[in-house]
Please model this.
Amino acid sequence: MSTCYNILLLTKGVCVAKSPNWTKEEIDVLTSNYPLLGRCKELQDLFPTRTMEGIALKANRIGLRVLNNIREGRTNEEYLELLGSTNFIAMEKYKGSTVPILHMCGDCEHEWLARPQHLLRLGAKCPVCSLKARFLSTDTVDTTLNKANLTRLSDYTGSLDKLLVMHNTCAHEWWTVYSYIEQGSGCPKCNRGFGYKCKDNAPDTAILYLFKIVVGATTFLKLGITCRPIKIREREIRSSIGIEKNPNISLITFVEGSSIQILDAEWDILHKYKKYTSNIKFVGNTELLNIEDMEEIMKDMKLYGHNI
Model:
């Protein structure tokens, strides 16, 4: 029987896919890594064509065991011996692999409660060091902002944390997050829809979208322009409003056209209809419209570009 990746078997009249046979190279990789990693994303990434269940089943069949899989009955001394190969220090007596105890990071001396089984995983970090690893240097952030002709007015504390910036061209100040600027978002007051990445290489086409947003008892429309997938813009707005507010964002309609045509369409519509003022602060809240005008706005949008 062929050992290609998609072998179809007929079982009771139903075609099902059989997993491919394990190659010697795969078994060697599994033998080297499973005892150290156990069931985790890092192990899964080594076998992109296989499921985690299939990987664990194969490991069990060939007798592999996780070296750091601590049993509740293991002694405190045994745990400390295993912990010696990490950069963590136990501040309390071991009580079991899943029972949180106080630990200290050998790098930053941060103390926190953690389960022993988590700290023995390959590549484990304390929460403070893990957070620092995700931070960019201030110089890197300022370099990106400079390309967008922006000045940072608040401390940078993370790519998804609020950041106060000022547009050097029009002096407009607003709160945003660094990741939005990095992806191409620009000044909401004067850039007319495009961020610095799009300005460096102006797109031939752009998308004009209309969202209906419901937050609690309030409902309003959000008109905007993007040269990226609309789904990305939706996620940005949802995150900016705040997941805890449980915003319901639905796409009403969208059209595609030349950049100039779409810019003119947004400008015309925003100046034709009365703007909606929301007390909910989020990225893009300067282009809000009233839900009562939705049908007329949709008709106007059809005059520009074409539906995708």
Q: What stands out?
A: Residues 76-131 form one domain. Residues 1-17 have pLDDT under 50 and may be disordered. The chain is about 35% helix and 25% strand.
